[in-house]
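Troubleshooting: if your tokenizer reports a length mismatch, compare your output against this known-good record of 348 residues.
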Amino acid sequence: MILTNLFDDYFCSLSEVAYSRVAEVIKKLAHIAPNHRWLLKEELEDAARRLTNPAISELGYLGNAETITLSTSSMVGAAILRVLQCLSNLTVDIHDRGDIEIGDTVRKLNIALDPLWQALSSCIARLETSLSSSSAYPGSVIAANGGSGNTGLASPLPPETQRVLPFVEAFFVLSEKLRESFTLSNHLEPGISTAREIKEAASSSGSIQNRNDRDLPFLKFAEKHRRMLNAFLRQNPALLEKCFSLLLKSPRLIDFDNKKSYFRARIRQQHEQQHYTPLRICVRRSYVLEDSYNQLRMRTVEELKGRFTVQFQGEEGIDAGGLTREWYQLLSRVIFDKGALLFTTVGN
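Known-good structure output:
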């Protein structure tokens, strides 16, 4: 009874920080008393099922233009997301333990929540239609022609659509765990399903192959609502490294501008996490290739990742970027000069 009250009430009202603490406590309890982990697992499953009907009712209102502006947050959506995240964290060692029972649990829960995912898909479809035809968002990222709008001039999504986001994140969390359960039970290597596979699976009259079973529900949802998902990513690129990370396994579903933002974010992370010592070299202009080679050939890979600082022998000056740029120019000219005999012309 205590657990039931905790999962029904607390997950609806917990702040993000408080939820993190509760989730950590639950995970520690499962670690300390592994024989009773099933009790925590069952309570989380029941909590998700109990929240399904209120969630479906809320999604039914969200597509209505008259009611969508009432609030910009969803307590039920946040609660379902937190319950599924907690269940996912509780089963994070699924591969290490080889727990087939957990995989069955995830699949059964996904079937039980299927009405919720259907309601979510219908709600998003209504919102996409409403935003595409809305005069208030003529340059919206939800384009009426079925593709992404002009990302350079796109207006942000209206704040009210944020009520849908927790439900979408919850779907992604369960889809990720569902994928893991199929991979474990069928000894499959993670792969990327293509549009052709989806089409073949949809047109097949027989049973769907295990690999498509694993990916198809998620891919059908993501393909259908690709515009809205990419719109959420434009507003919050960090989603691609969190709940939306499953999209990275099907990169064709991610618009180019979101891929570019993700790539640049990862590059920034690498620069922030790894601090390399600047690498100073001194070369003669007349022997720029020989001096550069002699000073760089014994350097380690980690040393070569540092920022170059170049000085030309016999010249004064502080390298603020200009000398390094000049060094690259001189070096490239010498390398490709025919007299260096490093390259030769072939054909035309």
